[in-house]
Design brief:
CATH topology of the largest domain: TIM Barrel
Radius of gyration: 26 Å
CATH superfamily of the largest domain: Dihydropteroate synthase-like
CATH class of the largest domain: Alpha Beta
Strand order of the largest sheet: 3-6-7-8-9-10-11-12
Number of strands: 17
CATH architecture of the largest domain: Alpha-Beta Barrel
Strand content: 15-25%
Shape: globular
Helix content: 25-40%
Number of helices: 17
């Protein structure tokens, strides 16, 4: 059962020393209970009490770092079943299944999907190398994949092959997905010695629970749970039950992230595979493995993931800056709008359709829409002028700024704040931008 603020308050010095960064011990305790600050931030709690409280305040699902360098990611750490309750913490990672037979063809293909959407790089983060019985081919595939700057999953139940493969790539923190009811002890030793995460599977949830208990009793709590590939229905039920038992039932034996191989579940049907990948993005695949990932699959999947794994209490924003569209340079006309991602992409898309070189100036408007940002005092003549003076400089020598029509009220004040600039009132709606820019003589 989760501890409340008063439960933590009992262990604080109650002196309001502010060493934790909070004004009072009670404020600190309430924030700990809400998950906003770690209990260890208080330097006055006894070590023995701190150990107990840290365990009690830890998320019901463990958090792990996998991969290394540019391919390091976090999985786990979830605290809610539904995104609207608070937020999801660690985004699902997408991977492709490869074998020693198709590794040379698969590696160049997975590199083709790599683009940026709303400031986030979208690419295949994981490579799952499957052992098909030939140790030589498996080890060779691991060597090749190890240089691809991706998280590696080694799907192998053969202990000899697993040990050799893990030695090759252990510095890059792979996942050894090979423990089951019969070999978990040997697989656990290989994973523990190498310091990597161990994937656990079983014939059903009861057997999986028993196997995890045995692994934990032996001291291994660095695990990820494979939901199985018997059928899509069973895999989905397993994923949901594992998450529900851990988060609502308080059973930390199932408090681990999960891995699901939708490629095996779809049995070669690419439409079914994409549908299953979408389902497990929402519920509750930490790592989702497909047989292939091209743009046709990636665009809807990554878009869905980005929507699901953003904090619903925080608007989706783009970074402030000067976005040069249609080959714009410092002599091109400037247009401004807010940093709300949906507004930005609609406006930028219309500007690109016009073909007119334009510098799109984005200021920090709190991630709100145009009228909301203006009403909240986030989009003001002062904020726009300040940004242009401090950040635009040589980027915008044209000194003509097109203002969203819905905030035409800012024109006069902007002219005062930006002497020498010509302030032009643009369209009320983005749909009119193409004609406006083509007709604009500047």
């Amino acid at each position: 059962m989760a501890l409340k603020g008063l439960d933590y308050f009992k262990f604080t010095p109650k002196t309001n020393c502010k060493a934790c960064g909070k004004p009072t011990c009670m404020a600190f305790s309430m924030d700990v209970a809400a998950g906003k600050i770690e209990i260890g931030k208080c330097p006055h709690i006894k070590p023995e009490d701190l150990a107990k409280l840290s365990e009690a305040s830890a998320p019901p699902m463990k958090t792990f770092k996998i991969g290394a360098g540019k391919a390091e990611f976090q999985i786990g750490g979830e605290t809610v079943l539904f995104r609207h309750e608070k937020t999801f913490v660690s985004k699902s990672l997408y991977g492709v299944n490869v074998t020693g037979d198709n590794i040379d063809k698969a590696l160049p293909e997975l590199k083709k999907v790599d683009y940026v959407r709303i400031g986030e790089r979208m690419f295949c983060e994981v490579i799952n190398i499957e052992f098909t019985g030939d140790k030589g081919k498996f080890v060779d595939a691991v060597k090749k994949a190890n240089a691809a700057e991706r998280v590696l999953v080694l799907s192998c139940t053969d202990t000899a092959a697993a040990k050799e493969a893990v030695e090759i790539c252990k510095a890059n923190k792979p996942i050894l997905n090979g423990a089951n009811e019969s070999n978990f002890a040997d697989m656990s030793k290989i994973a523990t010695d190498a310091g990597v995460l161990l994937g656990v599977s079983a014939k059903n949830l009861e057997a999986l629970h028993d196997t995890v208990e045995k692994l934990e009793a032996a001291g291994n709590k660095n695990l990820i749970l494979d939901v199985g590939t018997t059928s899509a229905k069973e895999a989905f039920a397993n994923a949901v039950e594992i998450r529900r038992v851990a988060l609502k039932g308080g059973d930390r034996t199932f408090g681990y992230p999960s891995i699901v191989n939708v490629g095996k579940l779809a049995k070669g049907n690419h439409e079914v595979e994409l549908g299953l990948a979408s389902i497990f993005t929402i519920k509750y695949g930490s790592i989702i493995l497909l047989d292939s990932l091209d743009y046709a699959k990636a665009l809807p999947l990554f878009g869905l993931r980005q929507n699901i794994f953003t904090d619903p209490q925080k608007p989706m924003k783009v970074e402030p800056g000067v976005y040069k569209l249609n080959g714009a340079d410092e002599k091109s006309v400037c247009m401004t709008t807010v940093d709300f991602a949906l507004t930005y992409f609609i406006v930028a898309g219309e500007i690109e359709r016009s073909g007119v070189p334009t510098n799109l100036v984005i200021t920090d408007a709190g991630g709100y829409s145009v009228l909301t940002a203006w009403a909240a005092g986030k989009l003001t003549a002062g904020s726009i002028a300040k940004y242009i003076k401090e950040q635009c400089g040589d980027k915008c020598k044209n000194q003509t700024l097109i203002l969203p029509g819905k905030v035409s009220v800012l024109k006069g004040e902007l002219e005062e704040n930006l002497p020498g600039w010509k302030i032009v009132i643009g369209t009320n709606e983005a749909v009119g931008i193409v004609k406006f820019l083509k007709d604009f003589k500047g």
